């Protein structure tokens, strides 16, 4: 590539600045080109920025002074074998890479400054094994603020009065940044240099701890690089469009004129964000649709107030609202980012902690000790726990160093919450009762289920910490049985004395794992009043390893016992299908080998339990259930049922820079299956038998919900997609009767995923009805888990005609 030189005028600052000269070069050009000569460094500050393209790979890096920018296009390989032959040929870096590292990344004469420097430094190592010295993260100059907020970026430039707000936000966080162009890259690198010079002039640059990746042990650097890349790609998977479910009616706030709305669904709720805009369709009945744009001004439970750029007449109705832009990073995501920064700045000793090493690193091979299985029985609410449950409880109670980390594998219906409840009661009986016990899970509903189990067995000395956003208006009804034990986040106390008074000696606290990153949790005294010493994590198979960074970073030094409970044959961590490197603790061989298996299920009728045991758990799962009839599973042949696309899914982004495919993924519906579900639901409702409906696709879930509502059948908290049902965003994850709408008729799709199909097939307590096409199940889908079930229940099919007559 012949170096290309061009100029631009900065568009960030209101003050005028000289034109900036930009030179674009290939990485290979650097071998004959002295970068420092072009940059003409007159001071020691060098602004840095990068472009991350497909799958987050760093494709371009730019270095800037106040008047010049050097943009380098990277060779898309870590190394080359130029002039070498054979598999054992010596591997060499591409030409120019040594110059890049020596002259720029390792240059001791200048400091490298960048926004999000940890991500940039780790991308260099992840993609090219390049390290950097004297690297400064600009947001670290505002350590007490949300490092990803637009306000932090603007304040670092001197405040809103010094910059063009929209241009600056777009350049660093909005559309211009996501497009990934070289012009934007040069502007961001120049902006980083300008901010670095401002901080230098105010003596604030010297307070930022430098990053030097040459001093970080290679294993730690690799783990951090992978963690950061996965976090980046998970963020890229967030929807850029959300259809907000709202009521059509609105009112106008008398004080500020904002439109006041009522929302329908928690999952699609409106959120206040500097980085999101609203597209509002409205109009009078039978009138053409009009479009306005605006922002969410405030949200309180189901109520929201929005601003729009046009007058909306009181007679109009809101037809739809779409949120444009990704949700802001969660507190847990921000916390993880800050922890990675702290590790790179050598402020945090994370990997040196004994408990972290036990999780991440296999112990040296040694003579295995014989685990003693106590013959002392464990009882809970008068019932004797089975041998595998009792063994799990004894392992949780064990003080042996080798048992500090304990993994329990619990298939569906094997009593995971029973084990947790029994362990808590036993811990409170022993000398360990002075310890703080924290019961954590991925979802609020899983936490609530554990709390209800504790209450059911007569243990009431606990408190639940829950986010007000989840609790107020939306889910207060879930906590009716235990409402006296709930502390919403808006009631977190400021002073230790008030926390102590609210706890009243309580030593057991329940919350989600993400609650440990809540901005109001650590400043208050809950972890001080109830030290995080014994930790039991439910749903651990759904949590990626990065999710434990806040727990281990903030509280690893106090944890004496860490228990992971889950099932790696059910839902995986979110995103694992697309990102194979995402791992849970169950994917770590040295921990998985030691997992204790709960071997008896009590939920599913015996024939269904036997099928799940043989096809998912290698025949190791026993069943204890009173229902033995094969009629507990019925398949309805929907011959005319066809899968139809209902629209584009949000899962796929069209923004190339975020590294996702430019193909459309469709959400699916099956109208004929929905008709059958209504018929079956009507029969169960008439008999006053409880039921729930599960389907793989959210479009079908919504369609089924509307059909049940039209038929005047129970529809609220009745229809779920598979992920939400098992992940715990529902009031429970089982029901007497489960009705399944498979949806697919042409392609296997969802059914190829054994873990999610296992969830769908293992939820019923008394019976299951599956609506699908027999031809599809015995043909294209025959090799799937669902196809195997259809084969085993070949005598269990019911025709559509018999269904209409109630013969099922």
Automatic annotation (TrEMBL):
A GO molecular function held by the record: 5'-3' DNA helicase activity
Pfam family, one: AAA_12
Chain ranges of the Helicase ATP-binding domain: 381-596
Keywords assigned: ATP-binding, Helicase, Hydrolase, Nucleotide-binding
InterPro entries to which the protein is assigned, alphabetical: Coronavir_polyprotein_1ab (IPR050534), DNA2/NAM7-like_C (IPR041679), Helicase_ATP-bd (IPR014001), P-loop_NTPase (IPR027417), SF1_C_Upf1 (IPR047187)
Source taxon at top rank: Eukaryota
UniProt xrefs under CDD domains: DEXXQc_Upf1-like, SF1_C_Upf1
Name of the protein this chain belongs to: p-loop containing nucleoside triphosphate hydrolase protein
Source organism of this protein record: Daedalea quercina L-15889
